[in-house]
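Figure 2 data, in text form.
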Amino acid sequence: MNLKQMIESTLNQSLKNLAPLVIMTLVFVGVSTVSLGLLAPVMLAGYTKSILDMIRTEKKPGPKDVFSQLHLFLPLLLFTLVLFIIIAFGFFLLFLPGLIIVLATTFFLIYMVPLMVDKNLGLMDAGQESISLVRQTSFMDHLIVVVIYSVIQSLGGSTLLGTIITIPISTIFLMLAYDQAVNS
């Protein structure tokens, strides 16, 4: 993976589409918050699809794009609920099992949602394909992608302004990594 090119492209795409990205992110965060998180996974799927289209075809992202993947509501909600229960149980047992589950899920299933919206794969198929893509990618390259993505997400997670800035940047970066993983 060409990390330098991915970082440059991320910054260029972010600046080039700043206003539409901020508006779409506000809708994504707003709907996710008002729905108490129930719509967050499906809104993320629409958000991901919009960013992927922006990168590939230079289509400007829009607020309605976050609603484009509503057909994935049930599978993503069930996956999120099951994952939440497993992680909570892991943290309940001891801190370490919960942390291992979070790290393994982030590491191996990072491309699951992009695969669902890009290739119209079902939940299980997308999960298996994500694991396969991770295994085909150089371990260090993938680890760097996951760390950069996680750090960007973490930096903005404490404030609304930070979230509005970091969600688009981290998602663009992840979609560029996804594109390289799929096309290699």
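Caption note: Residues 3-178 form one domain.
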